[in-house]
Structures are given as structure tokens and as C-alpha cells.
Amino acid sequence: MIDEIELLKHLKSKTYKEQAFKTLLTLYKERLYWHIRSIVKSHDDADDVLQNTFIKIYKNINNFKGDSKLFSWMYRIATNESITLINKNAKRLQVTNEEVQQIAINNLTTDVYFEGDAIQLKLQKAIATLPQKQQLVFNMKYFEDIKYRDMAEILETSEGALKASYHIAVKKIEDYLTDN
To answer: Where is the RNA polymerase sigma-70 region domain (predicted)?
Structure first.
């Protein structure tokens, strides 16, 4: 397995860029897909955002300065692209971001790619009631088991703020599940 520093060097070289990018896709495509999917909910939207994310990574890899891990940088791009899509959909439908999320949750029952049961659907509905940042933090911690240190790089905030957001999110989800 190639290490991140070597991979980055190859990504920035004209000679090895294509091969290195294929390696990058192989290593991160599935993780990024599920991260994006946890935000946008729909398989089709997640596929579109994933494609946009990798296009941005490819075009901007030479601007990556190495201040964070490559993984964190790519997750930040994926997160921003996901939020951009939600904002675009909200504007197009002339509704709030929260309403876009609710529509996406309601569409999960007819999404052939959603393999969840009634309990998972209820959990997704609970998550959708959270503010966007709490949704991100909850999904990244609960489903992806991302460390607070890495999450702090991805979301560009402090570990303390993330821990507080996660605990507040858990409490709100527990309350939702108890009441519904």
C-alpha cells in the first residue's frame, strides 16, 4: 500500500498523476460516497456529488498544501459539495435546507438503494431534524467513526465544539425517538 506522502507526490507529478488518481479513487471512493450519502440521502445525488468531488480534487490537487491530511482535505471538499447541492436544491424548490432534507428522507422509502428497515428510517428522520452542523458531526462520529481530531480538520472547528455538538445531537435524537 502506498503511503499518503508518496501518493500526494505522484498526484502532483505529470508523469504519475493519472495512475495515482486511479489509486486515490480506489482507496477513497466508497468512504467518500457513504459520507456524501449520509448528508444528501439520495443515491443519485450522492453519485453526482462524488463525481464533482473527485473532479475538484483532480483539478485542485496542486493547490493542496499539506496543512491537513489528504483524507481530511478530500472530506472537506465532499462535505462542501454536499452542502452546495442541498443549498441549490433548496433554492430551486424555493424551500429551506431543512425541507430539502425532509423531502430526501421521505424519498428514502422509494429509493431502491436504501437497504434500511423501519428503525433505520426513523433514525434518519431524527437526524434530519438536527441543524446541519449537528447532522454532519453525528453522521461522521456515529456512522463513520471519524476521530474528533480528524473531524476538526475536516470541519475546521475545535474538538471541544465537535464533542458538544455530538452530545447535543445524541440527546435530540434520543428525545425524537422517544417522542415519535
So the answer is: 26-91
